[in-house]
Specification:
Length: about 260
């Protein structure tokens, strides 16, 4: 992966939200077509998140130790080099200035990165178990009485049992009913930490269905990608969520989460 200094500067501006609308749009268009740029951006995000997550590092003690060590060394050098020529004194002054700049930079970087959101914390904050009754109210699908056993498994949060009972469904089901079941299976897979399988179903629903599940699929895809620490794709799905509809809970949650990630 070869990325020049100009591109690295653009990545930094993008991550720090310093781009205006046109510049951001141009950068994101390039991002969609450039795998190397995507990799570089993801690497920079992961570095930020890793450093932000390492809260157990006691930076203050480290800096204090560096300061004490430098102070002792400086005092020792002054005592030993007092008779020496003036240019060595100037050299020591430059060392002091350089050291102060390094320490200041470390403190500033640590403060900045500490504020970066942790993707899995955001996932935990925003994820809610999908309520089947919401789906039932918004759907024109009528469930037959013999469907009630697996519906009850979902409502009781018996997600493994629900997945078992809906694993082999008849081909005679209507498209609408199939979308209902597939979406609920994706939710059950997320609940049982089977994110890859859930993502496969949600992507299919997002790309092929014309139902109300498109926006919900985009929203839960974003959350699944957050859980997998894939912030770039999470942002793309969040933006898709806001584009599908400009109202409702998924729109407002996606907008709020985008603001936290950018």
């Amino acid at each position: 992966m070869n990325v020049d200094e100009k591109t690295l500067a653009q990545i930094d501006r993008y991550l720090s939200d310093q781009m205006d609308g046109d510049e951001r749009m141009t950068f994101e268009e390039r991002l969609d077509k450039d795998p190397a740029l995507q990799e570089a951006l993801q690497m920079n995000r992961e570095i930020h998140q890793t450093l932000a997550d390492t809260t157990s590092l006691d930076l203050e003690k480290t800096l204090a130790a560096l300061g004490n060590e430098f102070g002792q060394k400086y005092q020792s050098e002054n005592a030993d080099q007092a008779p020496q020529k003036e240019h060595k004194s100037n050299r020591t002054k430059w060392i002091i200035i350089a050291t102060i700049l390094v320490i200041t930079t470390i403190v500033a970087l640590y403060t900045l990165l500490k504020k970066q959101p942790n993707s899995q914390d955001l996932y935990a904050n925003y994820y809610e178990t999908y309520d089947w009754s919401d789906q039932n109210r918004s759907s024109d699908t009528t469930f037959e009485p013999n469907d009630s056993d697996w519906i009850q498994e979902y409502q009781k949060a018996n997600f493994d049992e629900f997945l078992t009972k809906t694993n082999n469904l008849p081909d005679t089901l209507t498209n609408s009913l199939q979308y209902n079941i597939q979406f609920l299976r994706a939710m059950a897979l997320m609940e049982t930490q089977q994110f890859d399988a859930s993502i496969t179903i949600l992507e299919e629903l997002l790309n092929t269905s014309n139902t109300a599940y498109k926006q919900a699929s985009a929203w839960y895809l974003a959350l699944a990608k957050l859980h997998q620490k894939n912030t770039i794709e999470a942002i793309q799905y969040l933006e898709r969520t806001t584009q599908l509809s400009n109202r409702g809970k998924y729109y407002s949650q996606a907008k709020r989460l985008l603001n936290e990630l950018k």
